[in-house]
Predict the structure.
Amino acid sequence: MSETSPKLRAELEGIPTYKPGKPAAAGGPAAYKLSSNENPYPPLPGVMETVTAAASSFNRYPDMACTALTGELSERFAVPASHLATGTGSVGVAQQLLQATSGPGDEVIYAWRSFEAYPIITQISGATSVQVPLTPGDVHDLDAMAGAVTDRTRLVFVCNPNNPTGTAVRRAELERFLDRVPSDVLVVLDEAYREFVRDAEVPDGVEIYRERPNVCVLRTFSKAYGLAGLRVGFAIAHEPVAAALRKTAVPFGVSQIAQDAAIASLRAEDELIGRVGSLVCERNRVLEALREQGWTVPETQANFVWLRLGERTTAFAQACERAGAVVRPFAGEGVRVTVGETEANDIFLKVAEGFRKDL
Ligand SMILES: Cc1ncc(COP(=O)(O)O)c(C=O)c1O
């Protein structure tokens, strides 16, 4: 028997691992999970029944083309079905975008810090990450990002609102940026948190995509729609890009349960709007309370807030956990705290107040 192990791609060496938000420990003091930007509500009305019905046929493969869901999305966004591509969560679709555009020798630009999957999926593709620091106000530096484009650039992620800071770029600056990016470079507007945006100046990427063939919009059912565990997201892009996404899709990646649940969730829109509205109210309450406590917190358009704690980040996360809420620390930088149940948000605020007094 040979002693050598199978040859693996060199690109995989040193790849950072994705750190999922820590779960709330069952029976432990931390009863609330504020670490993954999930929706704290139970499934929307009718979704559980739909899922239960779909479960009775999971001996069958799902509809590989997600025909019904695509039809529903096509109507809702007034886009041709051929401009839609579904995948296993929007992170799955993002990975397909990289497979479709980028490989060794190519460059992928994104802000940093931003969604932690970007460096991972870029490295897997074999392309090189070009990370452009956020401004001191924790917002995308779009001028610097446009300046970083070279003839090797294949794809640029703009995470709007940005994970983990919650900050969003506005229409005029985004349009100016897009005018500077060559038309053969794909710009991906990652709008996982779009439903929580209340600033009218933050553009809807779907409107931008209509005029710009090199723009692709990513959306997900994981956040506002509360289907994180079912793994379904989608892209809206012009024909060549959407077609490439269908080529790079994992066959049968989106389960029938996920497809049917997504349709049922879209049809429960009134309830969804109410829930998102309540979360936005809670977000504003949390933000105001933090500012009253004396923290400098960036304006957030998402379902989470970002607290820059520097060296005290880990201690803060541990204090939250002891108090009953798990948050998401980025050691040495800050914590991202999802807006959850009122009681959970109050636990976080109380810990924040204590830390503020100790400063
Ligand atoms: C900015 C951003 N994009 C994409 C995703 C991926 O979501 P999903 O794969 O569940 O659709 C997340 C999840 O945290 C996110 O924060």
